[in-house]
Amino acid sequence: MSANPIYLPESAPATVHGPYDPQYDPLVSRGPGRGRAYAPTYWVDSAGEAPPDDGPVAADTDADVVVIGSGFTGLATALFLAQEHGIKATVLEANQVAWGCTSRNGGQGQNASGRLYRSQWIERWGVDTAKALDAEIRGGFETFRELVAQIDCDAQDGGHLYTAHRPRKMAFLANEARVMREVFGYDTRMLTQAELRERFCDDRDACGAMLEPDGIGVHPLKLAYGYLSRARALGAKVHPSSPVTGWETRNGVHHLRTPGGTVRARAVAIATGAYTAPGLSPLLRGRYFPVLSNSIVTRPLTDAEIAATNFRSTTFLTDTRTLRFYYRLLPDRRVQIGSRSAIAGADAEHPRHYQLLVDGLARKFPALRGIRIDYSWWGWVDVSHDMMPRIVQPDPLQSVFYALGYGGNGVAFSAHAGRRMAERVAGKGGAECKLPIYDSPLPGHWATPFRRLGQAMLYRWYHLRDERA
Asked: Which DSSP state fits 302?
């Protein structure tokens, strides 16, 4: 494997504090940059001081394993490599620790991964495989729960609510609740509109809801900082401002060039999510689809506003729109809400995407119409072409591994994905390797060159179906 410089030309200045680029687009930008500032998220502003890292790579060095990307997956991989296999990885991060999706998401840790419901697992693979996959995803949620219990990350353990945004969606949710109870053994319950409003919140956009028992809301950057501290305490090294600008493999050794020096390693684990530069590895070319997701966070709610919205729970919510809204009450009584919006990075700053969230908030909670918005940001989500993630060694002849394609459901499962990728790197793995998310690489798609055009057409259709049908 070899590659031309990806992120920066060799003559680029050695700055380690580049400005935030609101129009960054993984499909057209040279790469995420070097040492760029974080997006202006609520999480960054409230996480407190970052724990120590190992600074940028400053000289040529050798490593047993290199992990590219320091988000949830990369840090979890380094943590489990050290904790369970005695391997001290070197993590290379182009910008700041957890700079990408990990510091920009909604903090909703669900018992899920990918975009498919469990009923769709049955349709695609049959009951037996669906049950085995459920056991793996459920085990992944327990991995997440164990880590969250050991890290101060403002955890809110209250399950997850799927809210029906149209009466016809209640039947869909009722079927999902039945499948989860009867096939998979979950204590999943349906709530009427009155029960939802009385027991959880007065969401005026909801006709009822499905309550899943498993779900933990977290402060994602505090959680990532916890992963960072634990991984480094076990011997891992984490180098920010160290983008991979070139990659060659000679005699089975990977030579990863960074602005500060070349890191040589026997194995490489890729954990760059939607921020994967197109030229990083041919094993990933055209294998995922980056999609933008926007978020806003309000000022803290007053007592009167809490009463008017009847927030009685911090259980997080997702509605049944295809271009879904995800929202929750944060520990400091702010409301966070997010959804999909722009197609391309060049359009990300257009006011209509911000207005979509403001209008959605007011539709769900009329008492919050006109409330001051303190934070607004966006970030890229890695969606696979078949809507399910992969944690794989795509080519058995190459010591290259990746974990990608969560589709917006990676807050929780990324911890377990890191554990499984660490096992793969260490040459281990059990019966779970036969499951669909482990036994094949991310699929390509014939329409990849036209994905943006197709996405624009689909978004228009989804909006008509969600709002007018």
From this structure: P
Angstrom distance (rounded) from CA 410 to CA 98: 13
Q: Which of 242, 254, 186 is nearest to 7 (CA)?
A: 242
d(CA 176, CA 112): 14
CA distance 411 to 401: 20
Which candidate, 320, 304, 275, 238, places its Cα nearest to that of 39? 275
Angle at CA of residue 257, ends 101 and 290, nearest 5°: 25
The string of pLDDT tens digits covering residues 88-127 is 999 999 999 999 999 999 999 999 999 999 999 999 999 9
Pairwise CA distance, residues 450 & 443, whole Å = 16
CA pair distance 26, 185, nearest whole angstrom: 40
Q: State how far the Cα of 54 lies from the Cα of 42, in Å rounded to an integer.
A: 25
Stated pTM of the model: 0.95
3-state percent helix, strand, coil for the chain, nearest multiple of 5: 35, 25, 45
Residues 13 and 89 in one domain: yes
Amino acid at the residue 141 = F
Structural domain contains residue 135: no
Q: How many domains does the chain have?
A: 2
Report CA-CA distances (Å) from 317 to 95, 130, 217, 312, 329.
31, 25, 10, 13, 9
Within this chain, do residues 43 and 71 fall inside the same structural domain, yes or no?
A: yes
